[in-house]
Amino acid sequence: MLKLQIISTTFPAGHKLWVARDPQGISQWSAGSGRHRAMGQPLPGDEVYQRLSVLQARGPLGSLARLAAALGSRGIAPGPGLGDPGHILAAGLGILQEAVAGRIVFQDRLMSLLRDEGLWPLEAARLLDYASYHGLVEQLPGISRLSWGALRCNRCGGQNVVFEPCPVCRRRECPLCADCLTLGASRGCRILVSAPFSGKAFSGEADFTLAYQLTPAQVRAAAQLEEFWQSPSQRTLVWAACGAGKTEVTYPLMRRALREGHQVLFAVPRQDVVRELAERFRSAFTGVEIAVHYGGQPWQAQGQLVIATTHQVLHFYQRFGLAILDEVDAFPYHGSEMLRFGLIRALGPKGKLVEMSATPNPVPRKGTAVTIPVRHHGYPLPEPEFVKSRSGEIPPAILKLIEESPHQWIVFVPTVAACEELAAALREKLREKVAACHSRHPQRHEEIKAFRYGEKRIIVATAVLERGVTFPGVQVVVVDADHPVFSRSALVQMAGRVGRTADHPSGTVVLCGTRKNGAIKGAQAMIKQLNQEGAELGLLKGEGYA
Prior knowledge:
Layout: E1 4-11, E2 14-20, H1 26-29, E3 35-43, H2 45-55, H3 60-71, E4 74-75, H4 85-100, E5 103-106, H5 107-116, H6 121-133, E6 138-141, E7 143-145, E8 151-153, E9 161-164, E10 174-177, E11 191-195, E12 207-208, H7 216-230, E13 235-240, H8 251-259, E14 264-268, H9 271-284, E15 285-286, E16 290-293, E17 305-309, E18 320-325, H10 337-346, E19 347-357, E20 370-372, E21 385-388, H11 396-404, E22 409-412, H12 416-430, E23 434-437, H13 444-452, E24 458-461, E25 475-478, H14 488-495, E26 509-513, H15 518-536
Parallel strand pairs: 13-19, 13-20, 14-17, 14-18, 16-17, 18-19, 21-26, 22-24, 22-25, 23-24, 25-26
Antiparallel strand pairs: 1-2, 1-3, 3-4, 5-11, 6-11, 7-8, 9-10, 12-15
Helix pairs in contact: 4-6, 7-8, 14-15
């Protein structure tokens, strides 16, 4: 591990305190730039930056600290030369700047990249010192030690920091962020290097084509988004009915931002959706390079249009002129201060944010969001019916409806245990094959496949099927809809599985429970509100709407 050293540099125009990795190498690249002295001993990143903050403090405390440090400072003997410094800068600076621009990256990743490009570790360290001294990059420890003993992770902004023995710096107590550990260890001794994206992305030729026409509701929403781009507002919300096609309405906005030289981010919660979107965007867009970021992909992938999981947003820094966040109400983004912190940091100083959801919380007031209240086929959303029932049971009338219906049914339940129990009970009562689907089911994908291809007419499922699936002609029953695990958003998403295709634009949604609680009332009101808006705008067809 490279420890860091506080350097005091005096030059004719003034004085600065900064941090270097290789003090002995400063003379190799700083000829004529000032007189350098080392302040104190080399320290791990969090300790050296804590000391630097004291030295930079205003008032008597800072003055006394600087005086004591100056008295104990020492000159820096030149280290061994490693060849032509100009050659090292010429070879590595462009690579470093391209890698860091618009990103926040741990130093060891950059060192590895520069090593792959032919620079030795000490050459790479001197290159990073040069870039830091001249303000080409910014650097901070993974964990900062703040006043009054507080600790903060500089990657995710979290303060859930623990102390553990460290295999890197060998300290018995090195701060480690517990919030973003799944992205790799953010430690006090690791250094983060960042730089804002500067300049233009130069995608003046960016364009897109669609194999189908946007619906009137989509055209209206796309125009509103372009108006938002020209407005002083920095943020807007797209509220779209489940299955209304909200992704496509962002295409004209993305094209506009790209043509004006901005980089664009499209972030979604799930890795499988990222891969699917990458194929769709590559088929639709021309004249723009597309980069895909999710766990296991190369971190330095370049592109003006970036598709990423929400966790990968933590690796970007002041890069995007436009960021579009889909499924803002879904896990893991919903309720995560960490991911919100990362998204805001990923935007450029004047960057704009579009959040998209089928179930926004709170429900926006009329006229405050871009709405797509109607699906592509133009029929109203199926409105859920509430049926009172005993806990864990399907009412006899609804069971008879399922038995006599020619359609497929999804029966949603709140827990894994309920899923297994109800699936077994339905197999016995209806005397037919019933699929079960939950997160712990060893053959979950096989069960979904059997349902999709009509081998099984009924599937009992937990919330794992509430989003991202379309089964033409399916009907929905939610058992124990008043269970605490079912939020308003979840109930709307479950209801949204019905009526998604033009061949089957309507259907039945039944919410069963012991009482009509706030989540049930909210879900019914949200769907009704979208249907009313669609009717008022003349976008609905079907009986009573045409």
